[in-house]
Design a protein that fits this description.
By secondary structure, the chain is an alpha/beta fold. The chain has ten helices and eleven strands. It has a single domain, classed as NAD(P)-binding Rossmann-like Domain (Rossmann fold). The chain is globular.
Length: 313
């Protein structure tokens, strides 16, 4: 197949591009800073010559958007919103204008669209989208606004010949440097991988191989459209999540951190505590109902596999 990855130079794009290329597909990446023959210049906002690569393609997987690993300042939040909404809008315009539009458009979204919750998991049918979230910072709601605006842009696109799927993805765990697994592993190996703010908050995640397999599954299933949760079926509290990660690295102890300590650490890392403190208890209802089987459904086994791959890198 001919597959186009707008914004395919980040961690998730690297995971997907590597796997799809290895499987023999022709992969083109749209990037603001292209490097190499398979990367094409675009600005993520306006139509241009890049749109020609979409015309005649089989699949578009739009991953474009400013990284969420940043301080949630007003400027950064606006950049996160604009980069996602603008890129989804212009991808939709390119597909609508194509003489031979792709048969499926997978649009990256996020499990952050669901409300902060401890009591029950969110699937696509019963999950609570944002809404009133008690005892959390007001700005957390802006992350939900970003997600809903992102998905709305895809829904509104006039692409009658192209099936549309919104990928409500949890954190994609891969052994790549700079990814979320790399960051958490460094903390664990330094003895800092204990529970944060009590560790009750749920962590939703997906192993990189299962992420790729889920994308391939959705490409091949013409009966699936709309939002789909890409998350392993066993989210777990942060305390248990970090305990399993420490176990995979052979680190017996992880110092706990209070909320204010997490704030200091996030400031030092130029990140935000929402990524640590929001309880994301997300399950893949539609994938499981459609018969998708996860290779790594449980975090301890997934973490052990990722550690093996890091050590063998």
């Amino acid at each position: 197949m001919k597959i186009v990855l707008p914004g395919g130079t980040g961690q998730v794009g690297t995971v997907l591009r590597r796997a799809l290329t290895a499987a023999g597909h022709e992969v083109a990446v749209l990037s603001r800073r292209p490097a190499g023959h398979s990367e094409i210049l675009w600005d993520g906002r306006t139509l241009g010559p890049w749109a020609e690569v979409i015309d005649g393609s089989d699949v578009v997987v739009n991953l474009a958007g400013r990284s969420v690993s940043c301080r949630y300042t007003p400027d950064n939040l606006r950049a996160m919103m604009d980069s996602r909404v603008d890129s989804a809008r212009v991808v939709g315009r390119a597909i609508a204008a194509a003489a031979r539009p792709p048969r499926v458009w997978l649009q990256m979204s996020t499990a952050t669209v669901y409300a902060h919750r401890f009591d029950a998991p969110h699937d696509e049918a019963t999950g609570v989208i944002g809404g009133a979230e008690p005892d959390v910072p007001d700005y957390w709601g802006y992350s939900v606004d970003i997600a809903t605006a992102w998905e709305r842009e895809q829904e509104m696109a006039d692409t009658p010949h192209t099936r549309k799927v919104a990928l409500r993805a949890a954190m994609v765990m891969s052994p790549d440097r700079g990814g979320v697994f790399d960051v958490l592993s460094r903390l664990a190996r330094l003895g800092l991988g204990g529970p944060v703010a009590g560790g009750r908050q749920y962590v939703s995640w997906i192993h990189d191989h299962d992420f790729v397999r889920a994308v391939e599954f959705l490409v091949g299933r013409d009966d699936l459209a709309g939002p789909v949760n890409l998350a392993a079926p066993a989210p777990l509290p942060h305390r248990a999540f970090m305990r399993a990660l420490r176990g995979a690295w052979g680190v017996p102890v992880g110092l706990p951190a209070t909320k204010w300590m997490a704030e200091l650490g996030a400031f030092a890392l130029r990140s935000d505590t929402e990524l640590l403190l929001k309880s994301r208890r997300v399950v893949p209802g539609r994938l499981l109902d459609a018969g998708f089987a996860f290779d790594r459904p449980e975090w301890p086994e997934a973490a052990a596999d990722l550690v093996r791959r890091v050590r063998g890198r």
